[in-house]
Amino acid sequence: MPSPQGCLRSVVSCALLLILCFFLSASSSAEPSISLSKKSGPPTSRILVSGCGFESNVGVDIYFDTKDEALVVTDSKGKFHNARAYAPRSARPGEHWVTALERNDDKGAQEPFLVQTNWSQFRFDAHGTRLNPYENVLGVKNVGGLGLEWSYLTGGVVFSPPTVVDGVVYVGSNDHHLYALNARTGRKLWSFTAGNSVQTSPAVANGVVYVGSWDKHVYALKADTGEPLWNVTTGGQVLSSPTVTNGVVYVGSWDDNVYALNARTGAKLWSHATGWSVSSSPAVANGVVYVGSWDGSIYALSARTGDLLWSYPTNNIVIASPVVANGVVYIGSEDCNVYALNASTGEILWNYSTGDPVFSGPAVANGVVYVGVGDSPHSGIYALSAHTGALLWSYPTAATVDSSPTVANGVVYVGSGDRNMYALNARNGDLLWSYQSSYGVDSSAVVNGVVYVGSDSGNVYAFSLKYGSQQAGAASKRPALQTLRPDFKLKASQQVATRRAF
């Protein structure tokens, strides 16, 4: 007869066996799941895909929408890590799907990926090019179909172009407010009251909005609520739009200084005094800050210390903001010239005489410099060879162009004091579309198939292809797993080493 201890051991063994079978059963029936390294991004984004719950040592195809982009082999636990997929250049704004599917059956998992491009600061990026390289909705062939999607009336002139980040439009007004608007509908989400006019274009980074004001302050606000995080007082009005990169806010002030501020705390890292007011917005490239001053000079400063690296004197005030592209600084001056300077040395490469003052910051794309020119009789938009400064074409306007052009997908967008917003063929200057406001029109942001622009009328406008923004871009439908077809030419990729536990 078995002893009590033996019976107890038998019961415990049976219980352990039942538990083990339960876990083995649960493991074998686990549903596959995947995670993405990012949930949104512009066309051409690289997406790292990791998964678990698949069969062990089997091939898994990674699809973006219906295109098979990668093949990876799971490990002995049915996992894989950091398989590479890409949002194609042609992916329209909206929701798309990433799918991981076992090659020999319909066992797989899907996650959405939002294709969207952010225009996160005054000139799109820290280099100041004012080029959106990702735009794939609006172009030469269809921009003539733009219509007014919505407008939002503020209480004052809107001098600065909006910024657009994660479906929100941020824009300042002469009515002392910074506004956050729903990018699709124009509905106000929140507003922040400064001590005076907000004439700078906001910069948005890591969930924080940075903006300057005529009240001599630089503000940092929560991007989702407008709640103040910090503010820094300068000795003069802040008309320079902040540039944010690598955790630092660079901005000029009418107290003659250029500032570098810690983006998280607002602590001053350094300041550099020029000979007069600074309303030019800094461009930052390769560890150097480039900015113009009312003293007529263009400055190159160490981004880390603020030390002067070089300066170049023009013959009049420099209000315009510089652009840095391919080792060259492009900038205009009120001495009626556009300059191209060696970014490393400040040596002049060429200058082009416009015949009128240049207040506009240039845009640079595909070897061409686009710049607005001031008073009549030479007012208009000029296209110059980035290599030689030779005039390629010009388009005349009836009043000053002091706004900065925007370039996207072969189209140049520019506002004028003649109350018109223009869209021109970037190759030859042909007029493709125009919209007349009741007052002067300023700079624009062109992103996700929509043109956002401020006006002296106090309005913020959003233009999209006719019949609504939903017609402009087409998000993809979630593909059924059984409809996906593998690319048998793909070779299994090596998994990228990672410490991440799934």
What does this structure look like?
By secondary structure, the chain is mainly beta. The chain has 2 domains: 32-116, Immunoglobulin-like (Sandwich), CATH 2.60.40; 131-471, 7 Propeller (Methylamine Dehydrogenase, Chain H). Strands 2-8-7-4-5 form a 5-stranded mixed beta sheet, with no helix packed on it. Strands 9-35-36-37-38 form a 5-stranded mixed beta sheet, with no helix packed on it. Residues 1-28, 468-473 and 496-502 have low confidence and may be disordered.
Number of domains: 2
CATH class of the largest domain: Mainly Beta
Strand content: 35-45%
Name of the CATH architecture of the largest domain? 7 Propeller
Give a summary of the structure in a few sentences.
The protein is mostly beta strands and 502 residues long. 5% of the residues lie in helices and 44% in strands.
Could you name the key traits of this structure?
502 residues; mainly beta; Immunoglobulin-like; Methylamine Dehydrogenase, Chain H; five-stranded mixed β-sheet; 41 strands; disordered C terminus
